[in-house]
Write a structure and sequence with these properties.
With about 120 residues, this protein is an alpha+beta fold. It has one domain: RelE-like (YaeB-like fold, 2-Layer Sandwich). Helix content is about 35%, strand content about 30%. A hairpin with a 2-residue loop joins strand 3 and strand 4. The protein is globular and about 40 Å long. The chain starts with 6 loop residues before the first strand and ends in a 5-residue tail after the last helix. About 20% of the residues are buried.
Length: about 120
């Protein structure tokens, strides 16, 4: 029987680094705790998660939303086959709209992930 649990995957770049893990590690401990809680909520709710926890960006990309003190943070992710939630990019949001360079980074990593995995997307 297939497991019903969803798993969290952090994008790994060609150099073997995880930019999302590095982003999360750069945050203060309170914000890290908030993200751990939010990521677990997303893992449990997965495709059923809704605002204010998540927001659809475009095509297959979604953002996990977090605020801490006066800062706004986002993790961009997508759903992949095998009940995986793949986090592509993390950043501190400075304006109302997601910056084009942050979306471009996420799209580039999305394409790289799919090319590496060589599989269909859920």
């Amino acid at each position: 029987m297939e497991s019903q649990e969803w798993s969290i995957v952090l994008f790994i770049d060609a150099q073997g680094q995880s930019p999302v893990a590095e982003f999360l590690a750069s945050l203060d401990s309170k914000t890290q705790r908030r993200f751990r809680w939010s990521i677990e909520q997303l893992r449990q709710r997965n495709i059923h998660a809704r605002a204010p926890l998540v927001r659809h960006l475009d095509d297959k990309l979604w953002e996990l939303r977090e605020e801490s003190q006066t800062n706004i943070y986002r993790l961009i992710y997508f759903f992949f086959t095998g009940r995986q939630i793949v986090f592509l990019h993390g950043f501190q949001k400075k304006t109302d709209r997601t910056a084009p360079q942050d979306l471009d980074t996420a799209r580039r990593r999305y394409r790289a992930f799919l090319a590496h995995e060589g599989a269909d997307q859920a």
